[in-house]
Structure formats: structure tokens, C-alpha cells
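Chain A, query sequence.
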Amino acid sequence: MQSSRGTRTKTRQVLQKKPRARGLSPITKAFQQFEVGEKVNIVVDPSVHKGMPFSRFHGQTGVIVGPRGAAYEVNVKEGNKIKMVVARPEHLVKNRN
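Chain A, predicted structure.
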């Protein structure tokens, strides 16, 4: 039988918090606001399953294109293509540069 290829496959180390950071994140992360054209880093928060982007985009930088419901559309360059990732604000961090 073929093994399952779910959205969180092969992410045992990637989507794992450090022992002292376990548990839910602060609720203020869910209330973050982003402007169109703002640069953000995609850092997946494993304690929040809703609006979680695919693990391939963890650690990548993108540009906010616009809101989509409670989430944001982020354009990420992958190779020669630009991909759109839909992620909730819990998984986005403002880029310092």
C-alpha cells in the first residue's frame, strides 16, 4: 500500500518547537496587520494548524499581495517562478531589511 503524502509529511524537525517554546503562541501574533507590498518572512508556527503554508515555504521571504479572508496572499520567488502562498498572520513575520 502506498504511504500517505499529507501536507505535513517529512516535517518532523522542521515543524517542531524547541522544548521551552512549546504550547500556544501569544494571541497578538494573530492580530498582526500587514500592508500591500510589505516584505514578510514565512515562519510556520506548528502550534497553529489553521492557515499553515506548505512546509516548502518555511523560512522564505515574500511580498504581501493582498488580504484573503483572515489570511494574506504572499508572492514568493521559487527558482524562476513566482508562487502565491496563502498564510494566516500567525505564520508571517515582518522582514527587518
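The mean pLDDT is 95. The beta strands are 39-42, 61-68, 71-78, 81-87, 92-94.
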